[in-house]
Design a protein that fits this description.
The chain is an alpha/beta fold and 415 residues long. The protein has 16 helices and 9 strands.
Length: 415
């Protein structure tokens, strides 16, 4: 989350400060005055339209209009969104806080107990302390990017897991299968495995059923010779046949799951492409060699509105690419990346940096090799490239319409 001033012209006339602890099913709220005296110690209500009137009734009893009532809540997954929107529509002053911020405040106060009621009071006290850093509430477009790229990442990881499990099962059910299909997770290979999930099943079926299955695949690259080779391999297979029924069923289900996941990934990729096509802010990013649609979409999603950052080093820290140093007396810890913020953002930067190393003509690749030649360790040089990519990306997003200039990668203009 970015840091924005906690005070505003609205907050100068705040008469009441509220804290709301958000849960998936229920919420707990409390209401204080600016002098920290309690008005409503604790009220529990359902996190649904039928529960909100309980909270809104407490607010309506206060001798102040919504514009003079400050309400804070944590950014707890997406559970806060509906209530936040409802209260925002009614004109209340809202502050979204990062859970880390309230947790640190809780620890500094020396509080050991942790309940929903105490959490609500802690949120209110953070607001009253003047230390509150208001969180970033993404726009509709950025929220859409985030939803799509995060789901795409989860499904991609699931697809990779399915592929690993399929390959492991093929090793025991039909180890010779990869002599014909090097990748057992290819489209035609999956069709064969779903129909004949073991060497024994293929041996019993014979050539003709397999031949017709292969010819039905589009494009039809395989024919009778392939079918004959596979059946011959199945007859001579070293597969033990242990747990044959269970493993065959598992393989069929995993193949189905992989195909279904891939279809959903294709739908997400088409939607992401559509978003990018109609987003003028990403034109500069799309010109960067090595930045594919997924990388560009992740940068747009995880950085959000970069205009809220005053300096490039704020963007670097937001992405968790800043250096955290711990020292105590004579002891000095090893400098490490803070790794705060979006892990997905750092993951995409890492993959883009790895591609740039071997990408001919890449300014980032040249930057990496120059650092290594100067004696920097390879991992440190790669981290420097990631940081440079993040700075360049932020610069291009801040300056809509500006084209990517590879000469700025190694110059001050990158930031």
């Amino acid at each position: 989350m970015s840091t924005t001033p906690s005070a505003s012209s609205e907050e100068a006339t705040i008469k009441y400060v509220c804290g709301v602890d958000i849960g998936s099913q229920s919420c707990v709220g409390c209401i204080c005055r600016p002098d920290r005296s309690m008005v409503v110690k604790s009220v529990t209500f359902a996190n649904a339209r039928e529960g909100w009137p309980i909270w809104e009734e407490k607010l309506s009893e206060l001798d102040a209009p919504p514009s003079q009532i400050l309400i804070g809540m944590e950014a707890t997954s997406c559970y806060h969104e509906n209530l936040y929107h409802e209260l925002e529509q009614r004109g209340y002053v809202l502050r979204l806080l990062h859970p880390r911020q309230t947790h640190q405040f809780h620890e500094r106060q020396g509080l050991r107990a942790k309940t929903d009621r105490l959490d609500a009071m802690t949120i209110a006290r953070v607001l009253l302390s003047g230390e509150a850093r208001a969180g970033y509430v993404p726009s509709e477009q950025v929220a859409t990017y985030r939803e799509l790229v995060r789901l795409h990442t989860r499904l991609s990881d699931e697809a990779a897991a399915y592929q690993n499990e399929i390959q492991a099962l093929v090793v025991v059910l039909f180890p010779e299968f990869t002599q014909i299909f090097v990748d057992p997770c290819g489209q035609t290979a999956l069709a064969v495995l779903k129909a004949f999930p073991s060497a024994q099943a293929l041996d019993e079926a014979g050539v003709e059923p397999l031949f017709h299955l292969l010819r039905a695949q589009k494009p039809a690259h395989y024919g009778r010779p392939t079918a004959q080779k596979l059946v011959a391999l199945a007859k001579a297979s070293v597969s033990s046949g242990r747990a044959l029924a269970g493993r065959s069923l598992s393989l069929r289900i995993l193949c189905d799951q992989l195909e279904h996941t891939r279809a959903n990934l294709a739908r997400l990729e088409a939607e992401i492409e559509e978003l990018l096509t109609h987003d003028p802010r990403v034109k500069g990013l799309q010109q960067v060699p090595g930045f594919g649609p997924k990388t560009v979409a992740v940068l747009r999603a995880e950085l959000g509105d970069v205009q809220r950052f005053a300096r490039t080093d704020e963007v670097i820290a937001y992405g968790g690419m800043d250096i955290a140093i711990k020292e105590s007396g004579l002891w000095k810890g090893q400098p490490k990346l803070s790794k705060r913020g979006s892990g997905l953002l750092r993951r995409m930067l890492y993959m883009a940096a790895m591609r740039s190393i071997s990408l001919e003509g890449s300014a980032f690749g040249a930057y990496y090799h120059r650092l290594v030649e100067r004696g920097l360790k390879k991992m440190s040089a790669l981290t420097a490239v990631m940081r440079k990519m993040l700075a360049v990306a932020a610069h291009l997003l801040m300056h809509e319409g500006e084209e990517y200039d590879p000469h700025k990668v190694c110059g001050s203009g990158a930031g």
